[in-house]
Amino acid sequence: MRVVIPFDARNPKSRLSPTLDREERRDFSEAMLRDVIDVVRETGRSPEILSTAPVDVDATVSVDERPLTPLVNELIEDGTPIAVVMADLAIATPLALDRLLGADGNVVVAPGREAGTNALVVRDPAFRVDYHGASFRDHLDRARAVGASVREVDSFRLATDIDAPADLLEVLVHGDGRASQWLRAAGFRVHSEGDEPRAVR
Amino acid sequence: MRVVIPFDARNPKSRLSPTLDREERRDFSEAMLRDVIDVVRETGRSPEILSTAPVDVDATVSVDERPLTPLVNELIEDGTPIAVVMADLAIATPLALDRLLGADGNVVVAPGREAGTNALVVRDPAFRVDYHGASFRDHLDRARAVGASVREVDSFRLATDIDAPADLLEVLVHGDGRASQWLRAAGFRVHSEGDEPRAVR
């Protein structure tokens, strides 16, 4: 099975701009990408990075400027089973990813928060992704429409993509890789006073 | 094992006040509680509700006005293995809860978003909870301090407690019980235009 990690190297993590400047967003997003690369390797697979621009990581990188949806659909059409794992799953673990990669089903989906699809496995070349908007329900519907067997993988660690400033708390609490190290080095810590903990700098 | 569901019947879900009025918050929180009661029953256990005021549900209800932390600690001291499951886990499933209840370990924790503890099993009477603030890390530290074996259960469905207006989207996308029915009947739906889906009314 191919394991593909899409990465936006041009203006990554724009929703973090209230908290991190452009250079910091680039560094932090690359730290998360490197964490995800490590996690894929620890499951015994070789990750392939699909990036919108060159990025300096220790893995095979293909540069393609097209949007994610047509790019992934082209790979699915090829017919080789494929896993697509988002580059911002900063608290993913090999155990959680193994549950996805090892699950039965011609379409296996790990839901993300906010109705998204954070990781999926496709073994049916008739299936098509559409990452726009509330993709999780769309993907279940599309899988059923082509008669593919569907499995959901229930994982907090795969459901947690790091998009918005509030998400940084999850990296500080549950992460132990480069992304959490980067945040701590940048001065972030958990502010626990009151009943709503948050990441502060 | 006792399975306890704490419930605040007095001013439930105050963080939802930008979206739901007081009566709606009460109705919605009771719908979530009934969903959690059903899920516990479907695992073959009898839930006990620990409520701050009387609540009309089809289960054993004990009314106790004390804060959650001393209440749960008193139950732990009794020595009977106990599970504490939050009443706002509106997308929990029997399968997810079974992973918690069936896990080995003298302290088994299902992390919640925002550093919380959404469900836990305690089989060591020396352990103490503290639900204040960033409780997840505290609970891991306290478990290790008393020498209890610790397990984490990695579940998106147990990690998703419904606190804030943005969380309603998760109920609409992933729920199939009374809480999602209540939201739909109250006029909520998934607004999918743009890249950030949300629950709108």
Describe this structure in words.
Chains A, B: This is 2-phospho-L-lactate guanylyltransferase. Two copies of one chain form a homodimer. By secondary structure, the first copy, chain A, is α/β, with parallel strands linked by helices. In chain A, 35% of the residues lie in helices and 19% in strands. The first copy, chain A, is globular, with a radius of gyration of 17 Å. Chain A starts with a strand and ends with a strand. The model of chain A has no long low-confidence stretch (mean pLDDT 96). The A-B interface holds A 93, 95-96, 111, 113-115, 132-134, 136-137, 154-160, 166, 169-170, 173-174, 190, 192-198 and B 93, 95-96, 111, 113-115, 132-134, 136-137, 154-160, 166, 169-170, 173-174, 190, 192-198.
Write the layout of secondary structure elements.
The structure is a homodimer of 201-residue chains.
Chain A: E1 2-7, H1 22-42, E2 47-51, E3 60-63, H2 68-78, E4 82-85, H3 94-101, E5 107-111, E6 117-122, H4 135-145, E7 150-152, H5 156-159, H6 168-174, H7 178-185, E8 189-191, E9 198-200
Parallel strand pairs in A: 1-2, 1-4, 2-3, 5-7
Antiparallel strand pairs in A: 4-6, 5-6, 8-9
